[in-house]
Amino acid sequence: MCLSRGQIRKALSGFYYVYSEGETYQTRARGNFRNKNITPLVGDDVIFKSDSTTDGYLLEILPRKNELIRPPVANIDQAVLIVSCVEPDFSANLLDRFLVYLEYQQITPIIYMTKTDLLDNILYQEIEEICRYYQKIGYDVLLPKFQDPDSLLGELERYFPENITVFMGQTGAGKSTLINKISPELALETGEISQSLGRGKHTTRHVEFIPLLDGLVGDTPGFSALDLPDMELSELSKQFIEMNRASEFCKFRECRHLHEPSCEVKKQVEQGEISESRYKNYLQMLDELENRKPVYGRSKN
Predict the structure, then answer these.
(1) Theoretical Cys-Cys bridge with 173: which of 19, 54, 84, 202, CB 3.0 to 4.6 Å?
(2) In the prediction, which pLDDT does 35 show?
């Protein structure tokens, strides 16, 4: 058996399908992985050996730059964050939670708004104003034209080449529907909104990295809620990029932007430079972290 380097692109029933030099190899993890509490993830770069494309073993998991928990995937470059304007209703709190989660994992977010065809002109203008703020602080935001939800598909496609991309967002926001529009041959399942619950049904069954537009994409489950990553209290404000910039001018180095004097963040909130909504979401998350029960033996990676 020769040693090779490859990338896990699919995990199913204890088998790991590794792509290497134009071929896909079916492999299993060696027993010492379990003894060392190591679980291979889709997206992992690995060292493996094999006699054939159907008989191989994983020998080593190479260092990861990041990983997601749900689903368990690794080494993501960017996330298309699907945000519904309506049905389900737009949630600034959930959007900010996703952004904190992605910032902490060092995954570049691309915010893509859906269902603009279901808005009236006034609601569209409100969403447009919200999007302008996120663009101002540094995020790529794609808001399709009024009554034309597919108007920016071409703009979105330019992000895919040479990147590993996941689609994520609120349950029912239209992730699988969007992927189908970009690449109908993927034939991903789509689901209707559950009217009685006001949220979408889970339709994504598994994760597999699929070649698309000279990159790799994977769909992730939707969320009606999202837990914050395990982090120190002092780390939270660093994930709000405009607050992190402003904090350089706070009087105290570890300012939490609560009651401290000469806090630049609070000053910019009062002046309207930092969104009051974002600041309130920060306070809510800070309170959540302060009251979280400790979980021992868990680390970021």
Answers:
(1) 84
(2) 86
All structural domains of the chain with their residue ranges: 2-63, 68-223, 233-290
Please indicate if the annotation marks 172 as binding a ligand: yes
Phi–psi pair at 220, nearest 5 degrees: -120, 155
**Higher per-residue confidence, 208 vs 102:** 102
> Is 215 within any annotated ligand binding site?
no
Strand order in the sheet with 210-212: 140-142, 108-114, 78-84, 164-170, 215-223, 210-212
Q: Is 174 annotated as a binding residue?
A: yes
As a whole number, the mean pLDDT across the chain is 88
What one-letter code names the amino acid at 69?
A: I
Q: Cis check for the bond before 109: say yes or no (omega within 30 of 0).
A: no
In three-state secondary structure terms, 172 is: coil
CATH number of 2-63: 2.40.50.140
Kindly tell me if the per-residue pLDDT of 200 is higher than 50.
no
Please indicate if the annotation marks 255 as binding a ligand.
yes
Residue 36 annotated as lining a ligand binding site: no
- The reply, when asked if residue 39 is annotated as ligand binding, is no
- Name the fold adopted by 68-223: Rossmann fold (3.40.50)
